[in-house]
């Protein structure tokens, strides 16, 4: 089971939303981890000296955290600068193994490139947890998106997939949440079968079904891997649901997250076919836009 040891909670221009800080504190307590709270002053007010603003934010954080020093080792710091740059510098300096950031409102997100959320997602060496404003105290549904190519068996049992399974399984158990495993697949040669096959009514259908079965077997193998990671008793308690939608990953993950009313989507930040950064950027943006959903993104 994955246990975080050194968590970073980073916020911009203030003390941040109560729900996100509460979850960071709970996670640190449950993992017996250190928690660093980094407030980044990105836009110093014109009517107040910077040092006074820093002191005011520090006081507010200390008041809010005063009752929690017994639950975990706490550290508070306020810096001036760009949120993503300061967070990445903090991660490099102190070796954090998780960063939690209340996500920016959708109207402030830049498309595809740029924005603090995207810089953290693409450059953080540790997992990034973007928490949405309407976050529940306890999650009901966690969606784990898994990527692999059944034609390449080595793409199933990978360090990234094992890490994703471990994280999602641990979080589902701690929140008593339902865990959903999803893999989006397609049958790219279907059109060729329809055009060139001697039996156009049967060959394309047979080909598509054979592709579906191959992808299904890969997802079942990952489910068995999850059983190995969690143990039989914990896995049987979770009884993960398997989902195998066909189509584009960005559309299908967003659609399924909405159908399940997912509280959290866990996924890797790199795609298989040379789309590092782009696939995760599109998918995260879709999920953050509608429906609101937190995202835990993990680099390979």
Beta-strand content estimate: 15-25%
- Tell me the distance between the termini: 18 Å
Question: Can you tell me the CATH architecture of the largest domain?
Answer: 3-Layer(aba) Sandwich
CATH C-level name of the largest domain: Alpha Beta
Q: What's the helix count?
A: 10
Quaternary structure classification: single chain
Query: How are strands sequenced across the largest beta sheet?
Result: 3-2-1-4-5-10-9-6-7-8
Family: Belongs to the universal stress protein A family.
InterPro entries: Universal_stress_UspA (IPR006015), UspA (IPR006016)
Keywords: Cytoplasm
Main location: cytoplasm
Written description of the protein model:
The chain is an alpha/beta fold and 300 residues long. The chain has two domains: 1-135, HUPs (Rossmann fold, 3-Layer(aba) Sandwich); 138-300, Rossmann fold (3-Layer(aba) Sandwich). It has helices spanning 18-31, 50-65, 83-94, 116-123, 159-175, 190-196, 203-230, 232-238, 249-260, 278-289, and strands at 6-12, 34-41, 73-80, 98-102, 128-131, 141-145, 178-182, 241-243, 264-268, 294-298. The chain has a ten-stranded mixed β-sheet with strand order 3-2-1-4-5-10-9-6-7-8, with helices on both faces. Helix 1 (18-31) links the parallel strand 1 (6-12) and strand 2. The longest helix has 28 residues, at 203-230. The radius of gyration is 21 Å and the shape is elongated. The two termini are 18 Å apart. Keywords: Cytoplasm. Its main location: cytoplasm. Belongs to the universal stress protein A family.
């Amino acid at each position: 089971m994955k246990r975080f040891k050194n968590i970073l909670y980073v916020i911009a221009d203030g003390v941040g939303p109560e729900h996100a800080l509460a979850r960071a504190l709970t996670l640190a307590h449950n993992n017996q981890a250190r928690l660093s709270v980094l407030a980044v002053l990105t836009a110093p007010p014109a009517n107040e000296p910077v040092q006074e603003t820093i002191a005011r934010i520090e006081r507010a954080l200390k008041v809010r955290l005063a009752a929690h020093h017994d639950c975990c080792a706490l550290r508070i710091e306020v810096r001036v600068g760009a949120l993503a740059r300061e967070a990445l510098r903090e991660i490099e300096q102190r070796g954090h193994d998780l960063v939690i950031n209340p996500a920016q409102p959708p109207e402030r997100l830049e498309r595809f490139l740029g924005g603090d959320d995207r810089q953290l997602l693409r450059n953080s060496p540790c997992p990034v947890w973007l928490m949405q404003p309407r976050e529940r105290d306890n999650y009901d549904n966690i969606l784990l998106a898994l990527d692999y190519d059944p034609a390449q068996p080595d793409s199933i049992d990978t360090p990234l997939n094992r890490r994703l399974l471990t994280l999602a399984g641990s979080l589902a158990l701690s929140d008593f949440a339902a865990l959903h495993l999803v893999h989006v697949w397609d049958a790219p040669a279907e059109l060729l079968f329809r055009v060139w096959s001697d039996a156009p009514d049967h060959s394309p259908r047979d080909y598509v079904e054979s592709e579906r079965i191959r992808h299904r077997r890969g997802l079942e193998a990952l489910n068995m891997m999850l059983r190995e990671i969690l143990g039989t008793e914990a896995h049987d308690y979770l009884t993960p649901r398997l989902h195998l939608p066909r189509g584009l990953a960005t559309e299908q993950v967003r659609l399924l997250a909405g159908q399940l009313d997912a509280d959290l989507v866990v996924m890797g930040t790199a795609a298989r076919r040379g789309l590092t950064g782009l696939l995760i950027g599109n998918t995260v943006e879709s999920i953050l836009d509608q429906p609101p959903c937190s995202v835990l993104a993990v680099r390979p």
